[in-house]
Design a protein that fits this description.
Blueprint lengths: L10 H31 L5 H4 L5 H36 L4 H14 L4 H14 L6 H27 L2 H9 L4 H31 L11 H12 L2 H28 L18
Helix pairs in contact: 3-4, 3-6, 3-8, 3-9, 4-6, 5-6, 6-8, 7-8, 8-10, 9-10
Length: about 280
């Protein structure tokens, strides 16, 4: 079975893709030019409206929000990866009473929006006496939601390792658990590292849901700042620029890691849900 979600495009398909890419880029440039023209016509590009963002207090406030965003993202990613690895191993278990709950968790949680999980933690749990601190009202839903995605990434990486690796470990006297921990998992981790980084980019963007629980992440900080200084467009453009720089850097890291993968490795951009062996 091929590990690619789509077949490689042929010459005609590649030409159509190039034409569509150029057309899309031109349309995007036209929209940006139109937006800039409208901003200029309404005085939004006046230097006086951008001058506050040349001061350190403004940037310090936004950078504090960025720090809160990164903190929530790192904690959520660490917990979600740990839970995802457990779920991946559960889905690969030969025991049905372990495999079935893990599969049910992944299949159910993957189709539930992260925002809905945030509302559950924010409104439903306090009714049953579980009122989490503000930080955990954001990180817990993100952990629950992203664990399912990480589980599928880890599972695909484990399944991609040749069965002979496990058999070789068993042949030298390792138990099945030891062969998985010492032989299979290190190789699988290297293969899926670009996918892990790519998924973490999405998780970082999901931290913007913190505005729902009034957690002081970057988007919420921008909202408060815009309400204070009345510079709505300027504030959100600066916030968008910060998100762009951070996410583009992580995406570049994912592509670099993918390019360094050995030939025939598992590509994070074309990973499919492979069937269990």
């Amino acid at each position: 079975m091929s590990t690619a979600l789509f077949d490689e495009p042929g010459p005609k398909a590649r030409r159509r893709i190039k034409v569509a890419t150029v057309a899309g880029a031109l349309a995007a440039v036209a929209l940006v030019a139109l937006a800039v023209r409208q901003f200029a016509a309404n005085g939004q590009l006046d230097a006086t409206r951008w001058q506050p963002y040349a001061t350190w207090p403004m940037w310090r406030y936004l950078l504090d929000g960025l720090w809160s965003t990164l903190l929530a993202a790192v904690v959520s990613a660490a917990l979600a990866m740990a839970l995802g690895l457990v779920l991946a191993l559960g889905r690969l278990s030969h025991r049905s009473w372990v495999r079935a709950p893990a599969a049910a968790y992944v299949e159910v949680v993957r189709v539930i929006p992260a925002l809905l999980l945030v509302y559950v933690v924010l409104f439903a749990l306090p009714r049953y006496g579980l009122d989490l601190p503000l930080f955990w009202k954001l990180t817990v839903p993100l952990t629950v939601s992203n664990a399912a995605a990480y589980a599928e990434i880890f599972r695909a990486g484990i399944v991609s390792i040749e069965r002979g690796q496990t058999e070789a470990g068993l042949a030298v006297g390792l138990t099945r658990f030891q062969a998985m921990r010492l032989v299979v998992l290190p190789q699988a981790a290297r293969r899926v590292l670009p996918s892990i980084v790519s998924q973490s980019v999405g998780l970082l963007k999901d931290t913007s849901l913190g505005f729902v629980v009034s957690y002081g992440e970057l988007l919420y900080s921008g909202k408060v700042l815009a309400a204070y200084n009345g510079l709505l467009i300027q504030t959100y453009l600066v916030v968008a620029l910060i998100y762009l720089v951070v996410n583009a850097s992580l995406s570049k890291l994912a592509r670099t890691l993918e390019a360094r993968q050995p030939s025939g490795g598992l590509s994070p951009w074309r990973m499919s849900r492979r069937s269990l062996p």
